[in-house]
Each structure stands twice: as C-alpha cells, then as structure tokens.
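Researcher: Structure prediction, please.
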Amino acid sequence: MRCTLADGNPVFESAVERYLILSFTAMQPQIDLLYELQAVNRQIHVINGDMQDFKRTFLASMYNFRVLRRNSRVQSPHLLDPLQKTIPGHGLVLARAVSDQDLVQHDLVAPAQPAAIGTLPPSFNTDTNAYENADILALIIFYNEDFGITNNDPIDIRIQKLRNFLTL
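Model: Predicted structure follows.
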C-alpha cells in the first residue's frame, strides 16, 4: 500500500520533514556562497564606479593639461579658456569662507546637483578681467576649488589668482 502526505501518516510526514531539513542543511554552503557572490558583485559595482570616476577625472585632467598649456601662452588682458571640473562636489563651503562683506553669505546657494567631473562652467566669461566677486564665487562653487583666494583679497588679487589657476 502506498502512503501519501494526504494520508496523514506521521511516519511518512516525519521522514519528509527530515529529508527537507537535510536537503536545506546540505544546501547551506551553496546559499552562503550565493550571499558571498552577491557581496562580491556589489563590491565590483563600487569598484567599477570608482574606475569610471577615475577615468572621467583622468580625461578631464588631460584636457586641462592642453588648455593650461594654451592659456599659459596668453598674456593678460587676452581671453582664457575654462578648465574642466576635476574635483567632485560643490564648493559652497569654500565660497562662503572667502566671500567678503559685499556679498551676503546666505545669498550663496549650492546647485541642486553638483556639476559632473569633466564639465565646463556654464556661462564662463573668457575675459577674466571683467569678473566681479560674485562671478569668482560662482566658479569656486562650480570647481570646488578656492584658487588660493582668502577672504581679505581685493578683487584684483582674486582675479589674478583665478588667472593663475587657469594658466599654471
């Protein structure tokens, strides 16, 4: 006579439970391996993202090297080309640290999303001699770089430090 689970046979049901427990116990190393593989996969995605960031930064730096060479041959008051962004994030904290009393610090705002590595500043004025404090602070926020400017620097020194950033 053949027994099925529907029969309610306790011996058979107990045997099935033992079989399932042993099966799952035997599968535990494979399950653990699956979790480890998932963790490794997440790490690979992080490393891949880091490599992509490095690649963008490297390409932007190579582009900037060519622009710096070209800009270094230009004498003031001639026009300078912008550099690509190489530092992630925005420089709101830096801009607030060097802002002077002419521009109230709370007027400085961070962009909704920091500019991506390898991008050029929007509306870059190639005539750096025409820059005002607000223009320089906007570039500090964009580049996440203070160009060596301090809060005591007058506008002519700030412009010179910006020009140094674009030419050296």
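Model: The chain has one domain: 1-168.
Researcher: Thanks, that helps.
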